[in-house]
Amino acid sequence: MEKQHVPLKEVRELAIKFTPQEIETCINQQLQDGVNECRMGTSTDHVINELSKAEFVRSKMEAGTSLTDAMRELAKSVRRVQSGFNEEGQPGA
């Protein structure tokens, strides 16, 4: 599995600007129409990936976690998922 860079600045800006419900609407718009109100982006895969991360962070923030700690939790989750796959993209380290 190819490791993906987490665009922290973009994720942080989206998490601050939009609620989880608004982000979810944007994800659905992107899937249905190929464009969304939250972000004009490149490929749909990239946009969905970025919006999903922002939704995770914003949900944590609304539950009382600071932005910094929510971003740390996101990074930790991404690393955990990435470490669960070998170079061929198969489960296992």
In short, what is this structure?
By secondary structure, the protein is mainly alpha-helical. 65% of the residues lie in helices and 0% in strands. It has helices at residues 8-17, 20-33, 44-62, 67-83.
Question: What can you tell me about this protein's structure?
Answer:
The chain has 93 residues and is mainly alpha-helical. It has one domain (8-80). The chain has helices at 8-17, 20-33, 44-62, 67-83. Helix 3 (44-62) packs across helix 4.
* Quaternary status: single chain
Please give the radius of gyration in angstroms. 14 Å
Helices and strands, in order, run as HHHH
Q: What best-fitting shape do the alpha-carbon axes yield?
A: globular
- Largest beta-sheet characterization: none
* Overall pLDDT metric: 85
Rounded to the nearest angstrom, the distance between the terminal CA atoms is: 11 Å
Category from helices, strands and their pairing? mainly alpha
Low-confidence stretches: none
Relative strand content: under 5%
Question: Helical proportion?
Answer: 55-70%
Q: Could you tell me the number of beta strands? A: 0
Number of helical segments with 4 or more residues = 4
